[in-house]
Amino acid sequence: RFRDSPRAPRAMATLLIDNYDSYVNILAHLIARVDGAPPVVLRHDAVCWEALRAHLGRDEDAVGASFARVVIGPGPGTPARDGDLGVVADFLRARGAREGDIPVFGVCLGHQALCAFGGGSVDKNASGPMHGRVVGVRHDGKSVLFDGVPSGGANGLMVTRYHSLATTKLDARRHRATAWAEDDGAIMALESVSGVPHFGVQFHPESVCTTFGERMYANFKKCADAWWGTRGGIPAAPDAFISQIPRALGRAGVVQALGDERDDDTHARASLVVRVMDASTSKVTTEDIFWSCFGSSSSSSSSVADDVWWLDSADESKGRFSYMGHRSGESWRRVTFALDPSPAIGQPTSESAKVSWRSGGADIAPKSGTLTVTDASGATRSEYLKGGLLPWLDEKLNERTFTREDVAALPFDFTGGFVGYLGYEMRNECDSLPPKYDSPLPDAAFFLVDTFVAFDHVTRRVFVVGTSRLNSASSESPEEVERLANAIEALMKDCATRNDDAQLSGTSTRSNADDVRGLDAAALLERTKFSWRRNRDEYVADIEASQDAIVDGETYEVCLTNMLHRREHPGLFRLGSRARTLYTELRQSNPAPYAALLSFGDDAADGEPLVICCCSPERFLRHDSHGILEAKPIKGTAKRIEPLGCGEDCAAAAALEANVKDRAENLMIVDLLRNDLARVCDVGSIEVPALMKIESYATVHQLVSTVRGKRSAAFSPIDVVKSTFPGGSMTGAPKIRTMEIIDALETGPRMAYSGSIGFFSHSKAFDLNIIIRSVLMRGEDTWIGAGGAITILSDPQGEWEEIELKACALLRAISRVDGMVP
C-alpha cells in the first residue's frame, strides 16, 4: 500500500514510470523535494495500459481523478523494443497523434522514447557510449526548461551522462533540440514545438555530479502547472488506482512520508551486562584476546576452533571497533540457510549473439529455502521458510529489546544479535533476480550471540558484554561475562611483561616471504595449485561481451568476477587445517578495516567446518542505532609502489584519482547506492560527504566514496537490506538487467564472495562489509573470488591483470602457509 503514515499526502500529482533503472528512486527524491509530495513510482510492467489510461489527462478516455504530470524514467535497452518500455510504449503510441492531454518529462531512455515515438531517430551515439561521464552542456536560452540555468560548463552547467544511444534526428513538426553536449555535440535536451509541456533530457538530472537538476525539474513543473491552469486547474491524484498498484518489495516500492517509530522502552525484555577494562597501558592486542579466549583449536596450533567469529578492524587507522565471540550460552545458535534450487532459466530473448538475457522486467522467484538451527548442546532442527530468511531474521531480532539507556551506554551499536554472512545468491530475497546457480556452501550462515567481546582501538578499552533476560532465573550470560573478563584481565597482566615481538598469533610465515614476494600470478598459481574458473581468453571474451552490451545500451557498467579454486589431493594439505596461520598472515600482509574470520562448525559425524578468512577494505552498508545509513563503495584500484610513500607511489595514487575510467566507475556506483538508499530514506537526507577520495592500503590504492542517508521510520532495518543487497559495487548498473548479463557470462555461483559479512544487532543497527579479498575453505575445497568493473573504457587485458593483482595478495599468503614445514 502507498499510505503507511497518517501524514502521507492525499494527492500525489506526479507519476514516475520506472524502466528498471538503478537511478529512478533518487530521481523520485528530486521530484518530491520540488513537488512537496512524493511521486507514485510505477514499474513499467506493473500495470497494463487499459488500467492506466483512464488516469492520464483529461480527454475522452479519462474518468475521475488524474495524474497531473508523467515522468518517464531512465532505463536499459532501446526505445525500439517494447519490452524495454512496457506501458510507456503503449502510452506514447496512444498519445502520439495528440500530445495535448498531459505534461511529460523524459529522462535518458524516456527522452529517447519521446524522440522515437515522435517521428525522430535514435541510434548509437556517434562518439561511443557515455557512462559516468561528466560534461558541460550549452543550451540555446529559449527553452523554459533552462530558465535560470547558465549555459556551458564554464558557467557551471555540468551534467552526468549515462547512455550508449542518442537522439540523432528530430521530427521538426514535433520537437526541437534545445541543448547540446560540449564534448561531442550530442543532443542533450528537446521540447515540443506545440507549446505543450513535453520535455526530454538525455542526461541524468538526479546525479550527484549534475548541477541545476532540481531547477530544471522545477521549471518543468511550473510550466505544467501553468498549462493546467488554462484547462481548469491541476487534477487530483487517483488514490483508488494507487492503492491497487502491485509492488515486489511492498512498502519500499514508493517514496513515502514519515511516521513515528514505536517507543521500544515499554517493550524491553532484557538488560545488558557489561564489564569494561582499560588496556591503554597494556600491550595486549585483539589477536591476543581472540586466540587466547576464543579461536585456538585443541587439535592444532595452526587451525581455528569451530563456531568462533571475529569482526576485525585489522587496519586500526580506518576502523574503530573489533568484535569477537564463540559458542557459549543458553541463547547461542548456529543458523544456516539454503535457498531452494535455482529455477531453470527460460530461453533468452535478446538479439545479441555473444551474450543474451531477458528483456523487460525481472521474474522474481519465490523466496523460500531450508533453515537449519543448532544450539550450544549440538541439538539441530530444520525448518522450511516459505517467506525466506530475511523476514525470519527480522522477527528474531525483534524478540529481544533493550532500554535506550542500555544501548546509549555503549560506544558501539552492537548489543548482541546475529553475526555471519549473506552470500551473493541471497539477492533472491532482495527484489532481485533468482540466482542462476546453486551454491555448494550455505547461502547464508549466522551465529545468534548474546555474549561477546568488543575492543575499542581508539581508547584501547575492552568491553565484555552479555545479556540478562528479565524475569529469568538463568544467570549463564552474566557468569560468562565474568569468566571472560577475568581471563582478559589475566592476559593483560601477562602481556605487560612480554617481549614486544611475542604475541599469541599463529605461527609466523615471514621466513618464507623472500621467495614469494617477487612471484607473479602465473608462478603463484603453479605453486599453490589454484586454477581460474574462466581462463584468460575466456575472461577477456566475457569483458568484450560486456562491452558489446554497453554499446547496445543494455547496461552502463558490469561488475564481472572470476573464481579461483583448488581441491586438495595427496601431497597437498587442507588449507582449512591451517586457517589460523593463514588469517594471521593475511592480517599482517594486508590489514583491512572490514576484515573478518568466521568458522562455522558442523556437528554431523562427517561434517566439515566452513572457514572464511576475509580482509575486505570495503564497507557495504552501516545502519546505526539512530537510523543513519552509510555506504563506502570502492571502485578504482592501483598497485602500490615500494618503498610505500615514495614519489612514484604518491604519483600512482594521484593518477588513480584523476583517471577518467576509474572516476566514471565510481560515480556510477555512487549514484546507484544513492538510488538504493532513496527507496528507504527520508527525502532530502541522502548526501555524499566524500566523493572519489584516495584510501591507501598495504598493497593497493583505492578510490573510495561515502554515501549517507536517514532511514525512514516506515521501513525496518531488514527492509533496508532488501532494498540494497547485493552491493552495487559487485553488480553494476542498472542492477537487474546487469545481473542478467552477469548470469549469462559467469559460469558458476559466487557463493559468499560478493556478499556481506557483519552483524545485525538487537539495537536495530547493522554493519556489513563487501566480501572481497577473501578465502573460503570447506573440506577439500578452497575458493578465492576476484573481479572488476567493466565499462566501455576498460582495456580487457588490463582488467585481467587487475583481477590477478587482487588475487595475488591472497595467493602469496597461501603460498607462505603452504611452504611451512608440517
What does this structure look like?
- With 822 residues, this protein is of the alpha+beta class.
- The protein is 26% helix and 26% strand.
- The protein contains 19 helices and 35 strands.
- Strands 12, 13, 14, 20, 21, 22, 23, 24, 25, 31, 34 and 35 form a twelve-stranded antiparallel β-sheet that branches. Strands 15, 16, 17, 18, 19, 26, 27, 28, 29, 30, 32 and 33 form a twelve-stranded antiparallel β-sheet that branches. A nine-stranded mixed β-sheet has the order 2-1-3-4-11-10-9-6-7, with helices on both faces.
- Strand 32 and strand 33 form a beta hairpin.
- Helix 1 crosses helix 16, helix 12 packs across helix 19 and helix 13 runs antiparallel to helix 19.
- The radius of gyration is 28 Å and the shape is globular.
- The chain starts with 13 loop residues before the first strand and ends with a helix.
Helix content: 25-40%
Segments where pLDDT lies below 50 for 5+ residues?
1-11, 59-64, 245-266, 346-353, 358-362
β-strand percent reads 25-35%
The biggest beta sheet reads: 12 strands, antiparallel
Describe, in short, the structure shown.
With 822 residues, this protein is α+β, with helices and mostly antiparallel strands.
Short descriptors:
822 residues; alpha+beta; 12-stranded antiparallel β-sheet; 26% strand; globular
Q: Topology of this protein?
A:
Elements: E1 14-18, H1 24-35, E2 40-43, H2 49-52, E3 69-72, H3 87-95, E4 104-107, H4 109-117, E5 121-124, E6 130-139, E7 158-163, E8 165-169, E9 175-181, E10 187-192, E11 198-201, H5 213-229, H6 239-242, E12 270-278, H7 286-295, E13 308-312, E14 321-326, E15 333-339, E16 369-375, E17 380-385, H8 389-397, H9 404-408, E18 417-422, E19 444-449, E20 452-456, E21 461-469, H10 476-496, H11 514-517, H12 521-528, E22 531-532, H13 536-551, E23 557-567, H14 579-589, E24 594-600, E25 610-616, E26 619-623, E27 628-632, E28 634-639, H15 647-658, H16 660-678, E29 687-696, E30 700-710, H17 717-724, E31 732-733, H18 735-745, E32 756-761, E33 766-769, E34 774-778, E35 781-790, H19 796-818
Parallel strand pairs: 1-2, 1-3, 3-4, 4-11
Antiparallel strand pairs: 5-8, 6-7, 6-9, 9-10, 10-11, 12-21, 13-14, 13-24, 14-20, 15-16, 15-19, 16-17, 18-19, 18-32, 20-21, 22-23, 23-31, 23-35, 24-25, 25-34, 26-27, 26-33, 27-30, 28-30, 29-30, 32-33, 34-35
